[in-house]
Design goal:
Layout (H helix, E strand, L loop, with lengths): L10 E7 L2 E7 L8 E5 L3 H6 L9 H9 L5 H13 L6 H16 L16 H13 L18 E5 L4 H14 L1 H6 L2 E7 L8 E2 L5 E3 L2 E3 L3 H11 L1 H4 L5 H4 L1 H13 L6 E7 L3 H5 L8 H10 L8 E6 L4 E2 L10 H19 L3 H10 L9 H11 L4 E10 L7 E9 L1
Parallel strand pairs: 4-10, 5-9, 5-10
Antiparallel strand pairs: 1-2, 2-3, 4-13, 6-9, 7-8, 11-13, 12-13
Helix pairs in contact: 5-6, 6-11, 8-13, 14-15, 15-16
């Protein structure tokens, strides 16, 4: 066992087990295809597994800082379980990661992980489902594909919540943007990387598949971005593309609106802006984000390019570590989202970011980075609102996720 153990980037969420508070620990990369449920009191121990603290010092640190009494034998059992699950950053997990990445890159395409799970895998059934959503908003306007924003570009802001809850908003934004989707000769999509860790921009050379067929990845644009960002950094989290749903659900709608016709796509996962809230600085000045904006700027002047931003809005309530949401809290979320959407509709990237930062992202907006970066690329474009909804996020309806759509051009 290493003297200074370090956890990999994991998904750790509060839960209950046997009637007691617990922690659900999962690996977004699924290297070992398993999860752990740990006693809630071991949370501080996980926090200290950062590679900076000596294993021998952990019992004293836990007692002094948190008042948690954990003996060496319990810590040894914890570390053994974490190691068995490949949750520790060590030789075993690095070998498993390298093998998983080699398999992913060797595949003919990136498989649609949600097909057959959260939406139909068969093209006919999927077409019927999405056409049904579109039929429900058939009175909505369809914006022409010509024109574009001040730079000539077109853009859509789309939710990436599951279709069951967000279907109507998806349909509203994609109906309005139907002609843009059909006319596009190149698509650049930026989507929330829910498990990015320290990764800013994550690329892949792999093609994305939907039940309608393949959407080929634009290797020329990916190569230019990788050169600008640095290949090691740009592909450090590539395997996150395998399970991340934020691009998949939106690209499936794109493919549907094109009647199954392929189009060159640049799939980009973008990391959290929380470091800029906690530590200062500005996202546009970050080297990776600045390189992305500079490299994609020429495409923002191309009327044949469609920019897609995949993100949801507020995440509040017990499902996200907060207090139960009632009538008053719902009204607060709506007021928050109204102001946020006003910045989006104005194409006001800096106003949008200032609003998020001033409130320290208290509503847990999940689309901050793709929305901001897309607004920066589109310039001062006017956005046309295309749907809004508050969606339940737990069986008790005490947690909610809000979603919206917006069409530019």
């Amino acid at each position: 066992m290493p003297s200074h153990p370090r956890l990999r980037s994991l998904d750790i969420r509060p839960t209950h087990h046997g009637g007691a508070p617990a922690l659900l620990v999962r690996d977004p990369l699924e290297l070992a295809d398993r999860y752990l449920i740990l006693p809630h009191g071991l949370g501080p121990a996980l926090f200290l597994l950062d590679g900076e603290h000596a294993l021998a010092d952990l019992p004293d640190l836990l007692a002094e800082a948190w008042g948690v009494r954990v003996g060496p034998e319990v810590l040894a059992e914890l570390l053994a379980a974490l190691d068995e699950a490949l949750f520790l950053d060590n030789d075993r997990s690095q070998e498993a990661l390298a093998a998983a990445l080699a398999r992913y890159r060797a595949d003919a395409f990136r498989s649609p992980g949600g097909a057959g799970q959260s939406y139909p895998a068969q093209p006919q059934a999927l077409r019927s489902l999405l056409d049904g959503y579109l039929a429900g908003v058939k009175g909505d306007a369809i914006l022409p594909a010509g024109g574009g924003g001040p730079n000539g570009a077109h853009g859509l802001l789309s939710p990436h919540i599951d279709y069951e809850r967000g279907g109507r908003v998806y349909a509203q934004v994609w109906r309005q943007g139907a002609e843009m989707a059909q006319a596009a000769r190149r698509v650049v999509i930026l989507g929330t990387d829910h498990y990015a860790g320290h990764n800013r921009v994550t690329l892949t050379r792999q093609n994305y598949a939907t039940p309608y067929g393949l959407l080929p990845t634009d290797q020329e644009v990916v190569a230019a971005l990788a050169a600008a960002i640095g290949p090691e950094q740009a592909f450090a989290g590539e395997l996150y593309h395998r399970r991340e749903h934020s691009l998949e659900l939106v690209l499936t709608w794109l493919h549907h609106m094109r009647g199954g016709r392929p189009v060159a796509v640049t799939p980009i996962l973008t990391g959290s802006f929380h470091p800029f809230i906690a530590n200062g600085g500005h996202p546009a000045a970050d080297p990776a984000f600045a390189a992305l904006l500079h490299t994609l700027a020429p495409l923002a002047r191309d009327p044949d390019t469609l920019f897609l931003a995949s993100g949801d809005l507020a995440h509040v309530g017990p499902a996200f570590g907060g207090e139960p949401v009632g009538i008053i809290e719902r009204a607060e979320v709506r007021a928050h989202d109204d102001e946020l959407r006003a910045h989006l509709a104005a194409g006001d990237a800096e106003g949008f970011w200032a609003f998020i930062k001033a409130g320290e992202d208290a509503k847990n907006v999940c689309g901050v980075s793709p929305f901001y970066l897309t607004l920066k690329l589109l310039g001062a474009s006017e956005g046309h609102p295309a749907g809004y909804a508050l969606c339940p996020a737990d069986p008790q309806n005490t947690s909610i996720v809000s979603v919206c759509g917006m069409v530019f051009g």
